[in-house]
Amino acid sequence: MPVRKLKPITPAQRFTVVNGFDSVTRSKPEKSLLAPKKSSGGRNNSGKMTVKNIGGGHKKRYRIIDFKREKFNIEAEVLSIEYDPNRTAFIALLKYTDGEKRYIIAQNGLEVGQKLISGENVSPDLGNSLPLSAIPLGTIISCIELIPSKGASIARSAGTFAQLMARDGKYASVKLPSGETRLILVNCMATIGTVSNSDNQLLVHGKAGRSRWLGRRPRTRPVAMNPVDHPMGGGEGRASGGHPRSKNGIPAKGFKTRSKNKISNRLIVERRKK
Q1: N or C: which end of the chain has fewer CB within 10 A?
Q2: Is residue 206 part of a domain?
Q3: Three-class SS of residue 262?
Q4: pLDDT-derived band at 1, boundaries 50, 70, 90
Q5: Distance CA 156, CA 39 (A)
Q6: Chain centroid offset of residue 194 CA
Q7: Whether residues 195 and 227 fall in one domain
Q8: Residue in 203, 144, 221, 133 with CA at minimum distance from that of residue 176
Q9: Phi, psi at residue 168, to the nearest 5°?
Q10: pTM for this structure?
């Protein structure tokens, strides 16, 4: 999935890097798997802005993704690899032998015509979904469940992957994309392979307008605000407003906000690297 660097016909295009979309095989989505998606503009039910820097953006329709992969032992064929405006990864359209169509997160190297299957006694091939108890140790996995039958919640964005390190009793040890090693129940499902569109990190917008297309409004630097608006606002001239912190005063750059009494702390074998 190579990227394309645009010719500098305009000043904005001088640094713009866009996706080549070489692996995408279809431009129009499956109508039966679309849902409406309403934009909030960062406002709540009374119309007040509660989240800054959100608004505008191109109108989108949500693609209903099958994160559970619970159609066990029924083979499916990959009909197409498609772009999804709601996520960084590409998605794959599957057609099962019983005629049902579903979208899944596409893995790197997935091709049209490939046969996929999910279940406990299936082979650990690219794109297949298995419980952690049935996956060989050392395998690269993605789209991992944290709670059995709830659906994938870990390693779903472009280019991410985890690695199955060990198994002991009812828990499996998984090295997550953040570098953290965590215990996950062995009956949680995971998909073999790395998530597609790994070149997403190389993209360069090149101009402010492209951020606006994505629904991102301009962000004011806290140092440029007044003291009433932000803890880092105010000061004479270019004097900055003290230590970096959020609008509600929580320090950044290393300040730990995770609860010391969180139940899942006992499942973390090794913390992520700073």
Answers
A1: C
A2: no
A3: coil
A4: low
A5: 22
A6: 12
A7: no
A8: 144
A9: -150, 110
A10: 0.91
In this structure, are 116 and 168 located in the same domain? Answer: yes
d(CA 245, CA 89): 32
- Which residue, among 29, 114, 46, 103, has the nearest Cα to 78 in the 3D structure? 114
Instruction: Compute the Cα dihedral for 193, 195, 196, 202 and give only its sign.
Output: negative
Q: Is residue 272 part of a domain?
A: no
Q: What is the CATH number of the domain that holds 84?
A: 2.40.50.140
Do residue 226 and residue 192 come from a single domain? no
pLDDT per position as a tens digit, 47-98: 999 999 999 999 999 999 999 999 999 999 999 999 999 999 999 999 999 9
Tell me the pLDDT tens digit for each residue of 211-220: 999 999 999 9
Lookup result for tokens 């066990």:
72
Instruction: Name the one residue in this structure whose structure tokens are 């099958």.
Output: 66
Name which of 190, 183, 58, 75 is nearest 131 in CA terms.
190
Residue 195: closest CA among 113, 115, 50, 88: 88
| 136: in domain | yes
Structure tokens at 164: 């199955």
